Amino acid sequence: MKANFSKTFLVIVLILSLPQVLALGMQLPEREESDIAINSVPLEFYQKWLFKSTSLFDASPTIIDINGDGELEILIGSKDSLLYCLDKDGDQLWNFSTGDEIFSTVAAANLLGDGNLEIYFGSKDNFIYCLNSSGGLLWKKDLGDDIYSSPAIADIDGDGLRDLAVGTVNGTIYCLHGNGSVIWSQYLTSGGIYVPIGLADIDLDNHTEVLFGTKGGLTSAKFYCFNSTGSIKWSKVISDPIYSGTAIVDLLGNSKLEILFGTNDKNFYCLNSTGGVEWIFSASHYLQSSPSVGDINNDGVLEILFGCYDYNLYCLNATGSLMWSYGTGQGIFATPTIADIDGDNLYEIFFLSHTGTPTFYCLYNNGTKLWDKVLPVGTPTSVALTDLDGNNQLDFLFGNQGVYSFEVYSPPQKGKIIWRNFRGSCYNRGTMDQDADLIDDLTEEYFGTNPLLDDSDNDSLKDWEELNYYHTDPMGADSDKDLLPDDKELFDYNLDPLDNDVDDDGLLDGFEVLFYGTDPKTNDTDLDGLTDYEEIYTWLTNPTNNDTDADLLTDYQEAITYGLDPTDKDMDNDYLLDGEEVLGYYAPTNPGANATGYVFTDPTKPDTDNDNYTDSYEIYHDYDPNNASSHPEPVTITPPPETITLPPETITVNNTVNHTITLESGLTIAVFAVTGAFAFVFVAVLARKRKELT
Fold this sequence. Notes:
By secondary structure, the chain is an alpha+beta fold.
């Protein structure tokens, strides 16, 4: 009974929970339908789009903003003889038709010096092609045989301009200028060149070496090192064909470059700059996968990754010892690519297996599987990594029977991409990009930028953007030395960061913005006819106010037209503004007014008509300031009589009588007064004596 009750209760709980479960299911992100089965997805990602094709893609994708419009494009060749350019949504922008299949992976760079990126690739029709960003043919050159090799870009001949190197199936290595002219070429009897070319100054002699292996022909297969002038510096005999491209890195951090490649003799080689063997790792089958390199576990030491036909992906340490391997059950000859997918500073590895059932893999840095996805039948390319649409989510792209795009949507952040495509960067040199700025470490040496910083000058512009889109100095935050950083000029002020005086007014843009408050895009900010420079340094006027002294005349009118002082509003100090005198003072009742009621005077003279009355007085009192006879009549002023009241016993004198009391008269009167007083006293005394006697 108790058991039945428990079962009944459990059923009720499940029924009541069903709506919540369904609601949660309805809240899951929508995904496009995919023809790829998902085996396991510890981290969540989905297929964004598929560009379908009737033909296989054997060339790996190159992802770059080829036209500088701020949007990434995908460039990839196909067996249908077409090079495709797709936008970030997988829509075709254009295609270019060659005469045969395309196995060559695109290299992109501005070699022609016009500031625009060019597209370089080879075809089985024997031609190497150079296209512009819209797919137009700039030039093509017949190299005499099929081209499977992917061109690589560096300054080979030491003239300061970058060149390209590519090989042909008949065994000829070519070094070409960016315009297609041949610098040098060399035919080799050791067989065809199917591999991408490695370019680096491996011996630190300030000259670029050209590194590649051959298939073998009249003689055994060899690995070659050519100098910059087309001579063989050294070569190493290999018993079997070489189909692996070369990786070139400083494995040990001692400023010495090592050369890494696999061969069909089942060995993976590490050579030094003179061709000596540093170490060899032996596998059990062909090694045709071009290696990639990175510090995948963030321990400060580089690891080496490559696939093998024995079904394993191998990870070696810098001294050639096996760290781990991952078995797929299928052959691997694509290049592993490396990125920190979740921003934890530990790197994940992405690669495709090729034989049997092709599968897309992602491994943790320790070789354990993060996910795998089964693909339709085909021969997949190497995986290219990028944030395709700028949403801070990592995208994976590769070719197969079409071009596939996948995107991570959980977790929402991504870390660095240090080996982003088949050859590490769009220059196809075979080295890593430690700062993930699209410029591989070796090419950063050419530009003089910091390979560990994506913004070497800290101006908020990536080195790649400065070099290829804005053409500013990636090592100087203020390319034109005008006191404004390049990013401020571009995005805050809409100025040219390569022109320190955009409006050609003689003032640096930075001075105009930071000190003068003038507009650096126009040479006359206040539109008064005087340039900002003239106002500041010649006339000492305000370049942002067309009437500095507020006298109703523009600074230009005062300085140039009327010869007045544009900083003094009343030059003649007659209490009339200069503008009032020049343009007219409205006084319709004034006898000097014109038909419209205005009176005009000379702003340089306080009394225009020289009648001893200022212009302002005459205008205010309705006299004509331009007529000397128009002024007030002279007035005689008679002062009123002035009466002086003296103290008592004084004499009142009428000022209208010509009478003067002299000092002498005054003394006389005083004497008489004193004498009279003594006489009065004397008489009084005598009278008193006489009375006493009687």
